């Protein structure tokens, strides 16, 4: 309620003001995935001030100074003017909570010292995940188990991953997580290429769509030892694929079962994904190469794994299109 009074204190008007806060108009959204209970430190470069919508035109004295404010007072958010013509950065330091907490906050950017009207509003999401470091060899999937702890009530849950072609989960469908119980979720990592990268794994309640647990898999994958190398030439621009054959000899005196996989299933398929060969005998592996529309070269790895999915040998086929 707002009262307008004359000098003697007598009210001459009364207003009842109803304030309805409106949602922010968000110009940009940032989403970060970070290990739980650690600090996220991030530096984000501000765009040039004259490119921002609503920026003042023809300012006396050149570039305006830029200011930032965060909606969460517990977050360190600051920026410094580095001088004329220099880029300006926003520094953030955010304390992450326990997994699977998601912290949401806003950062407003101003070009006036009174912080009257923001020229940009950025929205941030910080996903806190349980970190799991995985070291492996390409083509040889390590088997791991994750411990699931039940909530006070039983829930039907399902695991979802950011890389379903490289991360297998068991059970792979919906299953019951008993109340206050403990259960294992088995995962198999099958990276197709060497290097380091992140894989995200979420356990979701399929009925309420709530996040139950989240993991950040920090994958470090090494290149396997190549025992044989081949080089073949294939025509480019054709509409039909090409069939080739290579041989493999079982080095053991007893019969063995082998499984085949490749790092480029989009370019290579096998006539049979598994084969059995007697001790010391030779087996012919049938290869089917997909047609290519352009010229160039590709290196395709063929992994020959045993019955436990451990890598026995790796062949490299260099294809010249």
TrEMBL record:
Residues 30-127, 139-222, 227-321 form the NPHP4 Ig-like domain. GO terms for cellular component: ciliary basal body; ciliary base; ciliary transition zone; non-motile cilium. GO terms for biological process: negative regulation of canonical Wnt signaling pathway; protein localization to ciliary transition zone. Pfam families: Ig_NPH4_3rd, Ig_NPHP4_2nd, Ig_NPHP4_4th. InterPro entries: Ig_NPHP4_2nd, Ig_NPHP4_3rd, Ig_NPHP4_4th, NPHP4. It comes from the Eukaryota. This is Nephrocystin-4. It comes from Nipponia nippon (Crested ibis).
